[in-house]
Structure formats: C-alpha cells, structure tokens
Hints:
heterodimer, A: four-stranded antiparallel sheet, B: alpha/beta, Elongation Factor Tu (Ef-tu), domain 3, Rossmann fold, five-stranded parallel sheet, 11 strands
Amino acid sequence: xxxRAAVSAALASAGILLxxxxxxxxxxxxxxxxxAASTGNETAGTSAGTGSSDTSGPxxxxxxGSSGAAGSSGSAGSSGAAGSSxxxxxxxxxxxxxxxxIVQTRFGTVQVQVTVKAGAITDVTALKxxxxxxxxxxxxxxAAPILRSEVLQAQSAEVQTVGGATVTSNAYLTxxxxxxxxxNL
Amino acid sequence: MNTDLLPSPGADALRxxxxxxxxxxxxxxxxxxxRRRLLRADALTVAAWGSLAASVALWLADGGMTGISxxxxxxxxxxxxxxxxxxxxxxxxxxxxxRIPLIDGAVGHDRALEFHRKLGKPSLYLLLAHGVLIxxxxxxxxxxxxxxxxxxxxxxxxxxxxxxxxxALFIAVVVTSLVxxxxxxxxxxxxxxxxxxxxxxxxxxxxxFSVGALFAPGTWQRWYWLAICIxxxxxLLYYRVMQPxxxxxxxxxxxxxxxxxxxxxxxxxxxxxxxxxxxxxxxRFFIWRFLAPGLWWxxxxxxxxxxxxxxxxxxRGRLRITVRNLGKGSAQLSRLxxxxxxxxxxxxGLFSSAxxxxxxxxxxxxxxxxxxxxxxxxxxxxxxxKATVLLRGHSDQxxxxxxxxxxxCRARGATLFHLTGSRDPGxxxxxxxxxxxxxxxxxxxxxxxxxxxxxxxxxxxxxxxNVLDAARSAGVREDQLHYERFDW
Lengths: 185, 488
C-alpha cells in the first residue's frame, strides 16, 4: 500500500469512527430522554385505560384510584388488586385488568397487562418491556404499539411477531397469553 | 515519428495526449494517465477501509458504547462489531471478484483477486468470532452456557438456523480455498464450492435484518446496510452475468479457422461484429466459451495475441488468440470446427497501454506468455529505440509467434532478443538460459534503460517472479512492473 493511500485511509476511517461515536453519544442522550418521556406517557395511558374500565365495576375502580395516586411504581400494587379482582370475579368472562407472567429475555424482562370488558380484549398495556440495551428500548417502543393493535384486532395472542423485534414480540405474546389464561379468555 | 503510433481501436491512452504531443512534455506522455490511475487505486483503498470503519460506526452511532454495562453486554457488543466488520469484508471480497472495470482498471485483475484472497481468512475469523461471542454474551445475560444458548438461538429465534447454515457454508468455502487444500481437488470442485459463497451470503442476510437490533425497521442503519448489500448484488449481477451476455450478443463471435503454430500450439481466429468496441484501452484478457458440445461449460482464459482487425466501418472483423495444450480442455480447442459460436467475457486486467507510466517499455515473455506481448507490441505507443523485447524459451520453436514479433520490432524500431536454452538446474533464481547466466548477463545488459521503463512480464509464475526480482534489483519501482497471472 502506498503511503498516501495508507495515510488517507487511516484519516478517513478515524473520521468515520469519530462521527459515529459522537452521534452515538448524542443518540444515547436523546434516547434516555425520549424513553423517560415515553415511560411517563405510558403510565398516563395505563391509568387512563384503567380509568375507563372503572365504570364497569367497583372493584377495578378502586384499582384505578390506587394506580393513579401512586404513579408508575403503584402499578405493581394495582396489578395485585387486579389479580384479586379476577379471583373475586371468577366468572368465565369477567371484566377487569389481568397481568401476564413476567417473561425473561436476553434483552430484559417483559410483562403485559390486558384489560377485558364483556369477554373482549379492550386494551393491552406493557408493564415492562425489554430495555437491557438502549437499542432494545427503542425497539420495544416501536414494536409494542404494533403488537397491541394486532392483538386488539385478532382478540388473541395468536398474532405475527414484529420484524426486527422477534425476541420482544415472543415475550410480549407469551406474557399476554398468560394474562388471557388468567382472564379465562 | 508516425511509425511509432499505430492507434489501436478505441485506445484511450493513445488518443488523449495526441501523437507526438506529450501532455506533459517534461514528464512524459504517460505521466498524467499514471497519476490518475494511482489516484483511483488510492481512492479505492480509502473507500474500502472507510466502509470497514463505517460498519463499526453504524454501531457506535446507535449508542453502542453506552449500552455496555456488564461483562456479558461487553462480549455481546464485541460479537456484534465482529459480525458487522466480517460482513463488510465479505461484501468487499464479492466486489473485488466482481470484475468491475473501475477496480480491475486501477489495480489489475490479479491484484484485485489477490486482495480478495487476503480477505478470506480475516472475514471468516470475524464471522466465527461473531457467532461465538454472541452465544457467550447472550448466554451470560440469560444464565446459560454458550452451547445451550446457541441451541436456543437455533431453535427459538427465527432466521437463526439460516445463519448457522451460512456459517457452515463460509467455513467450507474458505477451507477449500486454502492453498494446501485447493491443490488436492480439481479446479471444478473448488469452483462449485466457491459458488456456495452466494448461498452463504444469502442465508446470512435474513438474521441481520430480523434479529439484528441495529437494523430494525425505521433506522437509517437499515437503509445503509440494505443499500450496500443491494449495490454489491447488482454489481455482481451486472458484471458477472449481464455484461458477458451483452458482449456475446454484441460481438457475435464465431470461429473462422484454427491453424497450427508449433507442436501443441494453435492460433484460433474468430470473426465478429463491433470489434472496434471490444477491447478499448483496457486489458486484452478475455474469458472464452466455445459453444460446442462438451466444451460450452468450460471457461478458457486467454489474452488476445493480435489486436482486433476491424475491416469495415461496422466493426466487422477478426481477432485471434494463441493457445497451447495445457490441459484436456485446451486440447479440445485444437479441434474446434469453423462456425462454432463463441461467448466472450471481458476485457479484463491491466496488461495494456492503460498501465503505462513511462516512455520506455520493456516486454519480457516466456513460452506461451509471449503471445499477449505480441498484441501489446502492436499498439502500445513508443518512439523507435525506446522499446526492448526479450523472448525466452527452451528452443527457437518455443518462441511462439517469434517471426511476427520480429516483423513488428523491425517496423516499430524495437530491440529484440531471443534467449533460448535450458536454465541452469542449480540456480533457482535465474530467469536466463544457463549460458547467458554463466556469462554474467543481467537485465540491464539487455535493456540499459530498464530503471526508467515500464516492464511487462508474461510467463510461468516461478520464472516471472525471477524476472520481477531481477527488475527490482535493477532499480525498477513497483508501479512500473506489470505482471498479470491468468492461471486461476
């Protein structure tokens, strides 16, 4: 290799790597900000969703209140309440919210919550999504809405996984199936 | 002055500076052509390294470094980077073997293939590292040993079984290409296994886009990766498939006659159309397929031994190759019938005026390697007295086309030497016959201006290496040496 080629190749490569690294730092910053914001939105969405179902039954209305008060950390408490409401209802097609299993993946844990009303799935909320790497979080945020709408349309966990988010999708649907089993759907 | 310029059809290098008017009087006629070619070679080098850096930068730009919090994540990250770099090298290898004129014309067909082979092992090591590190890294994240993790990936994750198949294919391709292994099998075996490269790349692609988080839908990284994969595929499809088919239809080559030159050596003359556009200024090396029963599937690499003779304005004319019986494929060529259709791929390489950098030129050929020099001698520009031709063979009979070369040297004012006789069996470094070597002759005795000349060498590999060494020790710079191997 000639000296000119070697030097310019080294400079060009170093430049490309530097640009990549710099924009990587930038992406990581904005991503954590976006993730924080979207987590906030999700919590709001959850409480709103539960709030809408609280007209159906008094038990779940109590759940909604606790979740709204405690914020995002309170959702665990609400899930316990929802579970008890399922046990209390025990009817084949009771309404309310049901938590799915916590599924471990190599990218983090996944858990979903399903809202059932009159035997139909009216909402699916992700309580936990893969977030092991910054990337997984982005994928989760991308894949979750797609999976949710597919599930609402199919009214079951028998839907296609999302391309590029296979692991997340599988975990999501596994957790969902557990929630549906709990709801006797 | 005009006798030194017999413009070859379409020869760029000949037309641009104009007869007798060097573009750069002080530096010689070929200085600017040479500079442009070196610039192109350097630009390609930078592009190749840049693409490798870019493959890592893709990951960095995704915030890859910030995601490394545990040992397992670090190992996974290394595995991802290894996979990206390995795939980039594989794409570079494909491009180097795609016979793209931009690449071949800058560094030569043989150098391009040399780089191709040099990248073989590094790319395999990177891909292997990719698989192993990912299995370890994911395994650590899930609390599994790497083997169970690999099995889990195979069974549970879609497209991953294809990636495992791809890995096995890559290993097969590289192992059969190792020199020691390759010698044990016939060329055809190696060739068929090498074709599996395409299968290996195609089976590797799905998991990159479906499992590879970096290339998730909606990311610019996905577009970049898709673009380079598609561009590589398109280049291969065009230059390895389309261009040969188009050239075959455009030129409509048919065998005119086959005449004996010497025992075991024949001239094959072909007629065809648009021959003025066949070779251009590039190399004179083509791959021929004679479309006769039992022959059509066998590609024959040969250089032209005479410039295309376009007899009319439509480019209808003749061209010629000279072939020696080297294997059973070549033997069948001596029995070719008139009217046999010929498919052609090329021209390839840089063994032509396009490689010139100096006003002086020295051509050194041995045996059947003399014949491409004849076509070069016919057209490459030089002033009388500024060219030297050295022909090497065991006997005068082996100086194939020697009488035609003598005529050309007379007409154009080139100095011609015949070097015949066996070499000294005790000396492995010599390219000269034993008698000349004992008399103490060296390259500078035949061509005193060799240090400031372009040296074209064509002949058996071992002999050619010796010639190149002799030229180097006579002070010839590397970029003045022009040698192409066609025995792939």
